[in-house]
Prior knowledge:
Blueprint: E1 15-23, E2 29-37, E3 39-41, E4 45-49, E5 55-60, E6 63-65, E7 79-81, E8 87-93, E9 106-108
Antiparallel strand pairs: 1-2, 1-9, 2-8, 3-7, 4-5, 4-9, 6-8
Amino acid sequence: MWPWQAKRTNQAALRFYIEDTFALKAGGTVLAGRLESGHIQVGDTVFYHNPQGAFVFSCVIKAIEIPPPFHTPAQHPKFLRADNKLVYCALMILEHQKLEFEIGGWLSEKKEPV
Length: 114
C-alpha cells in the first residue's frame, strides 16, 4: 500500500452537502453538491441524513464526477478528498430515487450526525 492510500486516523469525517438532485432515466439519482471534509471513493457505503440531521438510509457511491467549470473536461475520479477546501462534484447513487433525497441534506460515513 502506498502512503497516500493509507487511511489517516486524524482525517476529518466525511461531509458531503447536497445542493441539487437529478433523476436518471434508467433509475437512480445523481447528487450534486460539495465535499466539505473527509474523502469519498467509488464503492463506499455512506449514510444519508435529512436537513434536520436525522439518519434516513445508507447508499453506495457508484460514480464520482467533477463537472465543468470546476474541471474541463469533466473528470471521473475513483477517489476524492476535500484537503481543507470545498470540492464541488456529483455522485451517482443507483439504489435510491431522486424524491428520497432533500436539498440541504448530507452524506456522512456514520449514522450519527457529524
